[in-house]
Design a protein that fits this description.
209 residues; Rossmann fold; globular
């Protein structure tokens, strides 16, 4: 018979594993990270962010946040891309592919074709020897502690680690592109962010001195 005490223990175990996975991404903020950031900052087109399964959810989030931060981006699932969506790519665009294992056949086939249509392929993965990593121009490697994911099957900690890495890229790109808080808030007029925009802008500009 399970007890609520056991439930609490399992819950805390998951949260600790998630936290460790996120902190592990600090090791990935290196010269490769800087090279990727430069590519995104200098990109004259848009960033196509892609991924399958849970990575796809993180990719959609990353595309949205990059755009919020002034780096034009959009999300395209590999399945949609392989059904004609690849036609959206132009020579000045970049592809950012997210995948823990880097071996999804659908994602690999998508990226193999996408790479021939754009300015470069960047991947974030935990397996630097994967098929995805092998074809990428730049690879940000995730260093994941043991048991980051539930049963090493459900992408819990690994997806959060990927999100943390893309969040870091969002802010570095925003800062380097000179996309100020005034511009960001202008393009985000709805919701609580828009409601409190004037107060937030005063606070943020004061904090930056």
């Amino acid at each position: 018979m399970q007890s609520e005490h056991e439930w609490v223990g399992r819950a805390k175990q998951v949260i600790r594993a998630d936290a460790a996975a996120i902190l592990g991404t600090l090791d990935g903020v290196d010269e490769t990270f800087l090279a990727v950031a430069r590519k995104l900052i200098e990109c004259k087109g848009k960033i196509l962010v892609t991924g399958s399964g849970t990575s796809g959810s993180i990719a959609s989030r990353a595309a949205h946040l990059l755009s919020v931060g002034g780096t034009p981006a959009f999300y395209l699932p590999p399945s949609d891309g392989l059904h004609g969506g690849l036609g959206v790519l132009r020579p000045e665009d970049l592809v950012l592919a997210l995948s823990k294992g880097g071996s999804s056949e659908e994602l690999v086939e998508f990226c193999k074709r996408a790479k021939t249509l754009c300015a470069g392929l960047i991947s974030i993965t935990a397996d630097p020897k994967s098929a995805l990593a092998a074809m990428s121009d730049h690879v940000i490697q995730l260093t994941l502690p043991p048991d980051s994911d539930l049963g090493e099957v459900v992408a819990t900690g690994s997806s959060l680690a990927t999100a943390a890495m893309t969040d870091a890229l969002v802010e570095v790109c925003r800062f380097a592109r000179g996309y100020g808080w005034d511009r960001l808030l202008f393009t985000h007029p709805s919701g609580a962010v828009g409601r409190d925009a004037e107060e937030s802008l005063r606070r943020l500009q004061s904090a930056e001195g």
